[in-house]
Amino acid sequence: MFAREETMNAQRFSPVPTYLFPIFLVLLACFSFEVRAEPKKLEDFKDWSVYKKDTDAGRVCFMSSVPKKLRGDYNRANRGDTRIFISHGPGKSERDVVSVIAGYRYLNQSTVTFEIDKRKTPLFTLENRAWSQGPEDDQRLIVAMKRGAKLIITGTSSRNNKTVDEYSLSGFTKAKAFLDRACP
Question: Is residue 23 located within the same domain as residue 98?
Fold first, then answer.
């Protein structure tokens, strides 16, 4: 009887009721680890796919495509994944960001040429990625991609090798509309 009375007294004066302890442990486990989920593919639209990923900073949605043709004087085995992205988030201020991953490190301070139907736009580079000059350029590039049939990205690697990547714009317009609905 004395042990039971002691246990009851301990429970009575405990700052956290003991029945909440298991719930506390589960919540602690859930929030102790950073969310590192892989992007989830939402839908395919011909040559473009739309994804979402929840991060600590918020939801990121993006659409992406891979080149149909890769040209240049380089060893393909030395080149990583190559993609173009249109991304939203995290946050409402980061919308319609156009970027390219080259699959190699760009030549320092080089520019990349983004060409749609013979109209060229320079992109700036940082390591293995290229971006437009800002939101106004992003919007112009997106309008051109909706109207165009193919996109050619020309860059120069840190080994001074020129690359020419050709992307299809088939499915771009539908993918963009879906992206805007998935991540308003």
Answer: no
- Give pTM, 2 decimals: 0.77
Q: What is the CATH number of the domain that holds 59?
A: 2.60.40.1880
49-84 pLDDT, tens digit per residue, is: 999 999 999 999 999 999 999 999 888 888 999 999
Look at residue 86 and tell me whether its pLDDT is greater than 90: yes
The tokens for 174 are 């539908």
Q: Name the nearest CA neighbour of 183 among 73, 28, 53, 20.
A: 53
Instruction: Please answer whether residues 83 and 99 qualify as being in contact, where contact means their C-beta atoms are separated by less than 8 angstroms.
Output: no
pLDDT tens-place string over residues 130-144: 999 999 999 999 999
Host domain of residue 19: 2-31
Residue 151 burial (CB < 10 Å; 0-12/13-18/19+)? buried
Locus of tokens 């240049």: 72
12 with 98, same domain: the answer is: no
How confident is the model at residue 75, as a pLDDT? Answer: 87
Assigned token pair, 163: 């690359």
Six token digits for residue 139: 């919007």
Judgement on whether residues 154 and 123 belong to the same structural domain of the protein: yes
Same domain membership, residue 18 and residue 59: no
Q: How many domains does the chain have?
A: 2
Task: Map residue 131 onto helix, strand or coil.
Answer: strand
